[in-house]
Each structure stands twice: as structure tokens, then as C-alpha cells.
Amino acid sequence: xxxxxxxxxxxxxxxxxxxxxxxxxxxxxxxxxxxxxxxxxxxxxxxxxxxxxxxxxxxxxxxxxxxxxxxxxxxxxxxxxxxxxxxxxxxxxxxxxxxxxxxxxxxxxxxxxxxxxxxxxxxxxxxxxxxxxxxxxxxxxxxxxxxxxxxxxxxxxxxxxxxxxxxxx
Length: 169
Known about the structure:
The chain is mostly helical.
């Protein structure tokens, strides 16, 4: 397996976990918070997708699907279009609400497809390219992609855990 194939496999596993956590849930379940400070499944999936969209768009030199394909308008959230959820307050988490799983999965799938297209084109030393000089040491594309995968899997796992709690209740 080459590097592009390995990255695609990792992102595909994120997709499987996201779909398993979301499919078949009611809006009440998607938007439920197990306590006042907890993240809902809606927020978790929105946030992991926003981060992936932001980071892949930056690395690829393209616009974010959130903005270029109208997802920000479809969600209608009360945030700036560049918001990804980092540092969100409890009230901001509560503002991420959906009427069905469709927007969450539609947006995720669009970002997932772009991500797979991007990683499929990576060759040679592409992962060594510096993509963020604001850190010490500067962040390479390889480190950025692993960071996105790790965050995505963490939040998708949290969403699956919340789903399990809701199913037991």
C-alpha cells in the first residue's frame, strides 16, 4: 500500500464511523446533549467536518466546501462562515441543530470526496511540504493530515458513544 492509499483508508474509516454514528437517528437524538456541557452528535459531526474541510482546502489551495457549495447557507448557523467550532462555548454548541441527518452526512460526504481526491494526488515528498509556519516546528502536510485523522476519529468515536448512551436510555 502506498502513502495515498494508506491515507485514503484512514479517511474511509472516519467516514464509516461517522455514518454509523448518525444514520437512522431522529433530530432529537442528533441534537441531544447528555448534560448541559456535553457536545451533541450534530455538533461533533459538524465540527469534525468543518475542521477537515478547512485544513484540506488550505492544503490544496482551494475554497472550503462549506462556503463554495452553499453548506453554510443550508445549515444557517449563527456563526461567521469561517467558524469551525474551536473554542465554542456551551451556547454555541447548542446552536448547532439539524432537522435530519441529511445535512450532516451530505456535508461530510462532500468533504470526504474532496479529501480522497486530494490525497490520491499526493506523490513523492508532498507530505514534507510545510503548510503552517505558525508552530514550532512548522507543520508539514503529513503531520496536518494525521492531525485531521486523529481529531476526526476522536470526535466520530464521541458521537458513537453518545449514540450508544441515547439508545440505552
